[in-house]
Amino acid sequence: LTRYSRITGMNDVLFEEQRYWRFILDRIRHVTDLYGYLRIDVPVMEATSLFVRGVGEGTDIVEKEMYSFEDRDGSHVSLRPEFTAGIMRAYIENGLHVLPSPLKVWTTGPLFRHERPQAGRYRQHSQFDIEVVGEQDPAVDVEVINVAWHLFDALGFAGLRLHVNSTGCPACKPAYVGKLVDYFTPLAEVLPEVDRMRLRKNPLRILDSKEEVTQPLLDKAPHIVDHLCAECADHFARLSAYLDELDRPYQVDFRIVRGLDYYTKTVFEIKADGLGAQDTVCGGGRYDGLIEELGGRPTPGIGFGSGIERIALAMQQLGLAVPGEPKPDVMIAYLGEPAKLAAIRLVEELRDADIGVLLAFGDRSLKSQLKSADRAGVSHTVILGEEELKVGRAAVREMATSQQVEVSLDDLAQWLQRKLNGEAQTKGEP
Ligand code: ATP
Ligand code: MG
Fold it and tell me: What is d(CA 352, CA 355) in angstroms, rounded to the nearest whole number?
């Protein structure tokens, strides 16, 4: 007999964890509504060339991590490893530039990267992602950062820290990368193998190296903010001025470089206390050249992605409270077949009245049905017995006290509503 198991790096999200997911997505909806972001959904699969173009050829994602294959018609397709390229494709393809500018959108869903699995790193993970298209005012950069900040604050994170940097633009980035290469080339002998590789292929990535040997060498490395062109320097100065207006601690961190090719100007990460090495809960930045790169007219954009599993994991590690999942308050128990028929109708009538109800299945003893009610954690059990049913009544048992009262079936929905609302109110009081 074959026993199937999960594919490496892909996870089931079971019920205890769903509490976190529900809460996180609930807060995401709240925050995106507050800031006026529209929901967008794009396909899980796109043409491989879109990601090669959009994410960039020499990147880890494109070189090693994409789930790419040939479709039945011979076309080359990939599971999306990130959201931005697909959303920009949708922007161009649907002519979304005609909508009021800037266009502010958000999405969430699974992404796929064939990475080496470890705690907090999966081959299927989900992100919350926002993108703002069509405006280069650095006040937009601040708003995008604020969406993330507001969310993590609403989720209960403490000790949030914003790290910002500029990654320049095609006018100034290459010269800075040149300076970086000049700085590290004489040190190549002492650099660890991975970083020597980066020096040749993607020197900026040395800046976010986790190699111990490299750390002290970074102390004297040139900072990009000292080498920006006039336009990028002005953008960064205004961004800083706007950030100063908010009482949110931030630091300029020359080591923030995003892994994807398309970033220009502002890049940022938000970190939270108490999470050890994986303390980045969100990363994003500006990509003013991307839409043009993908065949659209020159249009600036900025966004961020934040891993939902990482947020949930962080919340668990930090012991942040999440509400329990809402669940039915009432169980219907029945004794005998005629009562069962009445119960089958009654559960739907009560649900029509917006009362969450469970039906005790399986024709069991009253004792066993009450045990189920206890395990389900309902506050009331309606017991339908043959005799009571004949006169249109049912017994309602309050589970906490085991007290029972008889209620007319005609009044039952209202009676329960009164009880349940009353209880919700007393529960809410200090
Ligand atoms: P990292 O440095 O952890 O590899 P990244 O720079 O690749 O992150 P992005 O591509 O910007 O991250 O993705 C944004 C967020 O998505 C990350 O901050 C993280 O929370 C989450 N994330 C990225 N890759 C994974 C993964 N393989 N499994 C789970 N979450 C992930
Ligand atoms: Mg990565």
Answer: 7
Q: Which residues contact 247 (CB under 8 A, 6 or more apart)?
A: none
Ligand nearest to the CA of 113: 1
What is the position in ligand 1's atom list of the atom closest to the CA of 282?
A: 18
Angle, in degrees to the nearest 10, between helices 84-93 and 48-55: 110
Which ligand 1 atom is the nearest neighbour of the CA of 81?
10
CA distance 53 to 269: 24
* Structure confidence at residue 60 (pLDDT): 86
What pLDDT does residue 430 have?
Answer: 43
Ligand nearest to the CA of 259: 1
What residues in the chain have per-residue pLDDT under 70?
A: 259, 423-430
- Please, what is the Cα angle at 360 between 357 and 364, to 5 degrees? 165
How far CA 173 is from CA of 187, 232, 420, in Å, comes to 21, 10, 63
Which residue type does 265 have?
K
pLDDT digits (tens, 9 = 90+) for 219-278: 999 999 999 999 999 999 999 999 999 988 899 999 998 767 788 999 999 998 888 888
Determine the residue type at 196.
Answer: R
Helix (H, G, I), strand (E, B), or coil: what is residue 209? coil
Residue 149's nearest CA partner among 27, 324, 260 is 27
If we measure between CA atoms, which residue out of 419, 428, 343 comes closest to residue 380?
419
Residue of 51, 116, 121, 210 best suited for mutating to test ligand 1, as the one with most atoms within 8 Å of CB = 121
Give the pocket of ligand 1 (CB within 6 Å): 82, 113, 115, 120-122, 125, 127, 259, 280, 283, 305-307, 309-310
**165 C-alpha to center of ligand 2: Å?**
18
Rg of the chain over Cα atoms, rounded to whole angstroms, equals: 28
- Which stretches of 244-347 are assigned E, i.e. beta strand? 250-252, 264-271, 280-286, 301-307, 330-334
Of ligand 1's listed atoms, the one at least distance from the Cα of 278 is: 3
Q: What is the pTM of this model?
A: 0.93
